Amino acid sequence: MITTQGLTLQVAGRTLVRELDLTIAEGECWSIIGRNGAGKSTLLRTLAGLRGADQGAVRLEGKLLPDWPLEELARKRAYLAQSRTDAFAYSAIDTVLSARHPYHANRYWEDSDDHQAALHALAAMEVEHLARRDVRTLSGGERQRVAIAALLAQDTPLLLLDEPANALDLAHQVSVTGLLARLCRRERKTVVMIGHDLNLAHSISTHALLLRGDGGWLAGPVAQVMQPALLGDYLGHPIEMIEHGGRRIFIPFEEHHERHDA
Amino acid sequence: MIVGSLLLAATACLLFSGVTGSVSVGLAELPDAVAQVLHGRQDTLAASLLALRGGRALTAFVTGGALALAGVMMQALLRNPLADPYVLGISAGASVGALFALLMMAAAVVVDGAALAGAVAVSMLLYGLARRDIRGGVAAEGGTSTLLLTGVILMSACMALVTLMLSIAPEGSLRNMVFWMIGDLAGTPLRVLPWLVLAGGLVYALRSARAMNVLALHADSARTLGIEVGRLRKGLFFVSGVLTASAVTNAGSIGFVGLIVPHACRFAFGPDHRVLIPSAVLLGGSFLVLCDTLARTVIAPTQLPVGAITALIGAPVFLYQLHQLRK
Fold it and tell me: What are A158's strand-pairing partners?
């Protein structure tokens, strides 16, 4: 689906990712894991084509990213930004309908198909009752779900999400990430997302990419990459793992734990 | 629907403006007078009054329409509902040019030319300084703050020049200069060029209306929805700049229309640019026609500068709307 070759990313003279070779296949669900400022968002923006590569290349379906016409690219990949500012009083449904832009190139108004797709996406995110609300009056979590609904309405094979679980309550974190996992498994969509919750990432991802922030990276299937020792190394804090009912649970190691108990 | 009814309202405003004045034209005389004017004759007093006032009303309409459209575009470009066509200093540049010409006691044509030159100079300078910001460099995440700041600074510099010129101006030209600053439609001839500019701007805006929605909603991420963000920003900058320059050259820097009309339309019809653009043009035009009619009738035969009227009517209407929204 999307591949990188010798991809190097630099921000303000610092190399965040060095010579990344990544092959992400159809139906895979990737989590990008790393500390703050390790280059996760920069990498995701590069994969989305919002930012050029400092070195190396990104290919989507074998074609270099800058060679794609923007509208065609918009029917291939969707991107969820980490944060957004709403300057105008658009309604939630307007927001989602705008994601249909790449599908009605020369028409002035949207079609009933577009409305159908938008309502469907809002329903999938359990925010259809907010369709007519001014987006500026929504809570952070509601706004996030409307933004993800827009992503779904864009109906692309590749979804890039920068912290989709941001601002969501526990129940919606589980249901939204579960929906993403189902999209991969059943509809063969490809998901690349950033998240800080290791357990959530582990439960839905097929693959993971660890970034250390100094150029170092490690990519592979979840079972190989999400090991406590590796995670501890890349996140800069020791991680413990416990098995619970067949699930692996990651918890940060607490130094004063034992002394506190005693 | 909305656009149709606004079109009717605009026509009514133009006719109303034609019959109102120090000497009013009776309703009975109106059809005959309209027919005469349309046939290029002015046999009766009513007809010549109508032609005179109609010409002025049309100038007011094109100026108001251009300012409102430029306001909508500037607000979309800066993603800031508080922006207006003057926020980037283009009109301040025009003021410097026009006031300098007035100071030199130049002819009206020269004043207009100088205003245009000032507007163009400031736009070029602004584009040169904030080029990366306007293009929406792929690296820049947030935005347009460099553009906005550069514009505001350029405006302050221009306003300083304006103040300097006003303070050294002789008594004789001071009144003209102040009227120019506030914005005045008296003595502005009916020209074709502003209509062409408005028509061109409207066509561009309607064609970009959908993309403007996406830009207003998603900022730089609009690129992931297939929008050439850099090209759109550049287009909005230039088209709104030309519209502003045309309006200001025509009638001086009339305030408030470019800010309040887009707002009023947004409150009334929602933020969708596909409705907002045509309605703002029609409402902006009608609003300025009504204000100008008031300006020359309130204490007739003395004529007030229309810029003062727009602000006097605009401010309370704006505050009322804002208050209603808060409730």
Answer: A77, A190
Binned at pLDDT 50, 70 and 90, residue B306 comes out as confident
What is d(CA B245, CA A166) in angstroms, rounded to the nearest whole number?
45
Q: Is B221 an 8 Å CB contact of chain A?
A: yes
DSSP summary character for residue A215: B
Q: Tens of pLDDT along B12-31?
A: 777 777 666 656 666 667 77
Please tell me if residue B224 touches chain A, with a CB cutoff of 8 Å.
yes
d(CA B85, CA B232): 17
Whole-number Cα distances in Å, A10 to A42, A48, A165, B141? 9, 16, 27, 15
Q: CA-to-CA distance for A180 and A152, rounded, in angstroms?
A: 10
∠ CA B128-B130-B136, rounded to 5°: 125
- Select the residue of A88, A101, A102 nearest B81 (Cβ to Cβ): A88
CB atoms within 10 A of CB A123: 14
Q: Which helix (H) or strand (E) holds B175?
A: helix B171-182
Are the C-beta atoms of B89 and B158 separated by less than 8 Å?
yes
Q: Which residues of A touch B74 (CB under 8 A)?
A: none
Residue pair A1/A26 in contact by the 8 Å Cβ criterion: yes
ipTM value of the model? Answer: 0.85
| CB atoms A87 and B220 under 8 Å | no
* Contacts for B245 with CB less than 8 Å, ≥ 6 apart: B90, B94, B115, B116, B119, B120, B123
